[in-house]
Amino acid sequence: MPFSSAIASPKLLLQLFISTIYCIFESAFSKLRYWTTGACKGTKSFVSAAGHKLNENNEETATIPTSVNYHFTRKCNYKCGFCFHTAKTSFVLPLEEAKRGLKLLKESGMEKINFSGGEPFLHERGEFLGKLVQYCKQDLQLPSVSIVSNGSMIKEKWFQKYGVYLDILAVSCDSFDEATNQLIGRTQGRKSHLDNLYKICNWCQEYKVAFKINSVINTFNTDEDMTEHINQLNPVRWKVFQCLVIDGENAGESALREAERFVISDQQFQEFLDRHSSVSCLVPESNEKMRNSYLILDEYMRFLDCREGRKDPSKSILDVGVEQAICFSGFDEKMFLKRGGKYVWSKADMKLEW
């Protein structure tokens, strides 16, 4: 060995030793930092420096994206004052990229996909949505494919073309009084939101799609009794949400909405639930249950973490994969199960009378 190399070797060994110690401390710090009270829920676990979920025995586990809500567009033709996923961008992934992400989710264990917005029927007049619905049911063979819509853009010809691939269609309706819907912003021009609701309910029956209703309870409808109308429409589920404030979406300086005037107390929400306790299909979701118990993908296919009262995005699953991205979703799997997030969601298993 040359003399110069012999002199240099101790220095190289020292640098290697320091580098190794640094990596050990960096790994330990990363594990401490991402210890879950938050990120990857299920068992008591933490996220390693590599982004993998580990349990107490230092064994890798993974959060399974059983049910995913994909908000592929933020654009909407309504202006609901409490909306917490507003039109901050107009971006929509190309169809093939969206399909690639959906396939990644299926390979990671997804059983149910829910398409939402914005208004999902607005982009390409529902054709983009229809192609995604068909792909998920026909190609990916998902047990459940569902949509949440305001109902204003849905045409019967969409059901004729794509209804066979859809398990559940949820239409948002916050009041059975047209004037109240006007105050909330769930309207467009002189079109009747309620006429659309009943029309779509009939189409769902005709084309064998399970019909669902979503309602956000707020200051304008908290005293309303919707029992008669809900019983008449007879949805498979009536999802009743407490108005939720998300910084940067419907509250704060950068927000496109000001939802504070729509917010109700926990007591008011409970009084609404008590008034409708006879409705068998009612599924209540308070802010506590709702905030962290949904896996939400935005238009870039990034999981959104709502634990801090805002929507902090992960990296896109298209760039880093599902397993790594989901560790930064803030998903509370225990609350997901507690609120009844897993239910009979395939229309083939619902035993409905069409």
UniProtKB/TrEMBL annotation:
Transmembrane segments: none annotated. It is a peripheral membrane protein. It comes from the Eukaryota. PANTHER family: RADICAL S-ADENOSYL METHIONINE DOMAIN-CONTAINING PROTEIN 2, S-ADENOSYLMETHIONINE-DEPENDENT NUCLEOTIDE DEHYDRATASE RSAD2. NCBIfam families: viperin, viperin_w_prok. Keywords: 4Fe-4S, Antiviral defense, Endoplasmic reticulum, Immunity, Innate immunity, Iron, Iron-sulfur, Membrane, Metal-binding, S-adenosyl-L-methionine. Belongs to the radical SAM superfamily. RSAD2 family. One of its GO terms (biological process) is defense response to virus. One of its GO terms (molecular function) is 4 iron, 4 sulfur cluster binding. This is S-adenosylmethionine-dependent nucleotide dehydratase RSAD2. The lineage of its organism: Eukaryota, Metazoa, Chordata, Craniata, Vertebrata. Its cofactor is [4Fe-4S] cluster. The keyword Transport does not apply. SUPFAM superfamilies: Radical SAM enzymes. GO terms for cellular component: endoplasmic reticulum membrane; lipid droplet; mitochondrion. Residues 62-282 form the Radical SAM core domain. It is found in: Endoplasmic reticulum membrane. The keyword Methyltransferase does not apply.
